[in-house]
Amino acid sequence: MKNRKHLRMIITAGVALAVTGTSLFMAACNSVGAAHAGKSESRTSVAQGPSGHAEAHTYTDLRLMVRGSQPVSPPNILDYPSDWPKATYSRGVVGESGVGFDPTVNADGDMDVRSLGRAEALPLETKPKVDTALRGNDITRAEKNTELLIIERQRAAERAQNDAIGCGGLITTIDEKQVTVPLKHTDVKGAVAGYISAVTVTQQFHNPYSSKIEAVYVFPLPENAVVSEFLMTIGDRQIRGIIREREQAERIYHQARAQGYTASLLTQERPNIFTQKVANIEPGKAIDINVTYYSTLTYSDGGFEFTFPMVVGPRFNPPTAPGGAGFQPAQQSGIGAVARGDHGASGQPTEVQYLRPTERSGHDIALSLDIDAGVSIEAIESRTHKVDVKRNSESRATVTLTKSDSIPNRDFVLRWQVAGESIKSALLAHSPDARDNNGGYFTMMLVPPKDLASVPRNPVELVFVLDRSGSMDGVPMQQAQTAISRGLSRLQPGDTFQIIDFSNDVSALGAAPIEATDANIGKGQQYLASLDANGGTYMMKGLRAALEFPHDPKRLRFVAFCTDGYIGNEAEILGELHRKLGASRVFSFGVGSCNRYLMDSMARMGSGLATYLSLRDDASTIMDTFFDRISHAPMRDLTVNWSGANVSEVYPSRIPDLFVGRPVILTGRYKGEMPSTIRVAGRVGNEQRTIDVHTARAEVPHASRALSQVWARAKLTEIADQSAWDVNNPELSQAARKVALDYSLMSAYTAFVAVDTAQRTAGDFGTTVHVPVPVPEGVRYETTVQESR
Amino acid sequence: MKALVASILLVAAAVVAGAWSPQPEPRVDNTMPAATTTEFLAYDVVIDAGSEPLSAWQVEVKDTLKHARIVGIEGGQPGPYSGAPHYDPKAIQGEHVIIGAFTTKDAPTGKVRVARLHVMAEGGTPSFTTTITAAAPGGRAFNATLTIQPHTPDAAPGAKP
User: What is the pLDDT of residue A661?
Assistant: First the structure.
């Protein structure tokens, strides 16, 4: 998927661009180039800083940077990619000749870049030396309009000083790979009560530049997050955002932006990907955005799991994928993955800009979580991050991310085990207010019967599907191969299996189900080990190959789909899964900091379960857990006897099967009284089983609100699932829009907008600055991110 | 945080449920400035509680000419009502806003700026009708005066109206 177009430039040997111990003027607040032209006599220069005081700056090192064919007009640093150095004190643009340039040092020690066309003489104190970074073999030619930037390499101490808001002299430190971003810090504070979490995410934006900016940040939230609150904080003023239809919110935002008002807009690109825009941030100013969401936690095998995604993985968009299939509005399609500064290169309406492997941003993250498990907590563990755990009581704890682990480049996953038999099936209801005609809401957790684990399974037909696209290269591929290898070794006589792998194309171990003999398993292991990861993620090919595979009716068919899910055509995949599912059950294995929205949706629509395999997990253990689950018959065909209660709109409308160790959560509405006990019936093998569920009332106010919003979110999910295959049904989008607006929820059709109309900033809206992010841990930039130069 | 969330949500629930009654008759506020084609305006929501302690309030504001769209709701002056109040999401779809808040301590008296409305006005001047319900400690309703007044941009942040 990579599209690298090298910039070529001639550099004469012996030319010096980097100097040490040079003392030169720097525009602390970045008047850039023009302010310094012709000052060749300078050694130390003085300029007016933002405070109006004279400021001096000493350079320690200089570097030459280039940028591809992009004209500079007007000559302002903010015309460069957002995170390019503010400390650039000179620049040049390759002129008509287009034959390259020959920067030399003249007798006065000045670098002469006049051959660039519109160039400026640079005052240098000592004879510089060649910047080795620009002597690569690929740099042999400069194209017209190529920009040249002379940049200071700043000392760490100075950088720390300049990092303060208001200085405006923030500098990209090329050697130390640090780049400026307008998102300074993300603070995550969560509270867990039982299996519901309420989380507030605060994004601290600032403007370290010398003129106004609009900050744009594409970020992830949990796929089941019920985003219901949005606040913009300017100083000590707090403005609550308004939920509106997306198009309307966007129009308001653009009007406010154009007129110079500080405004913010939150849109949803996928259930787990959001775009935050903040317009008219004045130099030196800071604006906080608070987003609050609820979510239900996953419970499995005796423990709860809290997940917070920190970075959007680089998505692949198959060229043949239709834009906007299913739940997404028509104008949306893929999500591009481009290099920092390559805005627009992907052609997708939503783009994530990624830091190069040698770069880091100053954006960090803090996270704390207060857990009230309601039952005794036996152990708390994070395999993905270092955490400090403070036990407040048997059932309560506070977990904090350590400061040494504050780079947001992978999902945060926290798991706490609770006392053995403490989790039982239960229904939590919110008592409706007598004046509220809508009635009440409930959630119900169905825990599998204990004796489920004693019921053996029938022979299975297990189809392993392995994503071997470029994004899986390296550790993710190794993890997936280890897991599948373990799975092969767990097959029993009478089972059959198949291995299907895909990237640009699809291949398989065999043309028909293969008997799970020792010899065949050995062949499967060999085949698996021979697979390399490269190419695009043409998941549709892999999915079709897995689901169109001839089915043996004597065996239960399980499809284990191992992927990071880094695709932009989720709706297309889910629609096809629905159409082709047949008798199969799809179990998704999300590898690394994967696309959990896709993983969960595939499992939900595929009547299976999602399993997550982080790069720090033991892959064999994860696969063993999966086998333990499928090695026993699930409780299926579940029906609920509501004992005459007036219950409606229960989601999911088709109750999922209960597998060993994995409860199911239902949510619904009711009027009147809820009986004290609800009975759920189902079938295990050929036997009938029942589960008695006791009801309880949610007395805490925020739990009541959470229940209604969790229900609304479940309804949106149900509509979204149907939209994936019922793509031309306009009633679905109308229904989704109404639910989202009525319950003040983010969705593909709604957005939050907030405008500060009390103060108007001067001038136009400034420059749009995109926040670049690191590729997720373990993912290779070179195989996943599109570069235009 | 939970306590904060709980108190906020209590207010939200009360707002949505229309907790305070009876509702006084709407009145027309004619103090609005003229608006151009698309203009962004701020209005301070000021309640004069007189000598009564303002423990709870609920306000409904509606532009009868349908020029105004609410684009943000800000908290009031420093004190118990400085936080941005919750709004009724269904009401906002009809381009009128119902907001409210309560405090269990230090209920202010006299004129109190309880909120600021941020508005985008399109095609004309908004003309607001308002209703107010005010309550003293214990939920006792009392008569209070509501004014929706254009915000003066030069006022220092947090200054009393």
Answer: 87
Task: Please count the residues of chain A.
Answer: 789
Q: Between B71, B83, B90, which is nearest A755 by CB? A: B71
For the whole model, what pTM was predicted?
Answer: 0.77
Pairing status of strand A178-179 against strand A360-361: parallel
Cβ distance of B118 and A756 shorter than 8 Å: yes
State which residues form the domain around A692: 426-448+650-677+686-742
The CATH number assigned to the domain holding A538 equals 3.40.50.410
Residue A241 CA neighbour count, 13 Å, CB half: 38
Structure tokens at A557: 């068919």
Convert the pLDDT of each residue in A562-604 to its tens digit: 999 999 999 999 999 999 999 999 999 999 999 999 999 999 9
Of the pLDDT bands very low, low, confident and very high (cuts 50, 70, 90), residue A717 is: very high
The helix/strand/coil state of A35 is: helix
Among B71, B81, B86, pick the best mutation site for testing chain A contact (most A Cβ within 10 A): B71
Q: Give the minimum alpha-carbon distance from B148 to chain A in angstroms, rounded to a whole number.
A: 14
Does residue A40 form part of some domain? yes
Helices A619-630 and A475-489, packing angle to 10 deg: 40
Considering its fold, how many domains does chain A have in total? 4
Domains of chain B: 2-150 (2.60.40.680)
Query: Closest-CA residue in chain B for A294?
Result: B5
**Among the ranges given (A360-369, A403-412, A572-581, A702-711), the one the predictor scored with the smallest mean pLDDT:** A702-711
Among the partner-chain residues B40, B82, B116, the one whose CB lies closest to the CB of A259 is B40
CB-CB neighbors (< 8 A) of A189 in chain B? 1
Q: Which two tokens stand for residue A678?
A: 């609800």
Which residues of chain A have a Cβ shorter than 8 Å from any chain B Cβ?
A: 189, 191, 193, 198, 200, 231-232, 235-244, 248, 252, 255-256, 259, 261, 263, 370, 433, 435-436, 700-702, 704-705, 741-744, 753-760
- pLDDT, residue A424, reads 83
Q: Is residue A299 part of a domain?
A: yes
B14 touches chain A (CB under 8 A): no
Residue A257 has pLDDT above 90, yes or no: yes
Q: Are A576 and A604 within one domain?
A: yes
**Residue A703: closest C-alpha in chain B:** B6
Q: How many CB atoms lie within 10 A of CB A441?
A: 25
Nearest-Cα distance to chain A for B89, in Å, is 6
Both A80 and A170 in one domain: the answer is yes
Quick one: A666 and A573 in the same domain? no
Place of tokens 């899910």: A565
What residue type is A443 in one-letter code? T
A219 and A273: one domain? Answer: yes
Q: Which residues contact A157 (CB under 8 A, 6 or more apart)?
A: none
Residue A167 lies in a domain: yes
Mean pLDDT across the stretch A94-105?
Answer: 35
Q: What is the pLDDT of residue A261?
A: 95
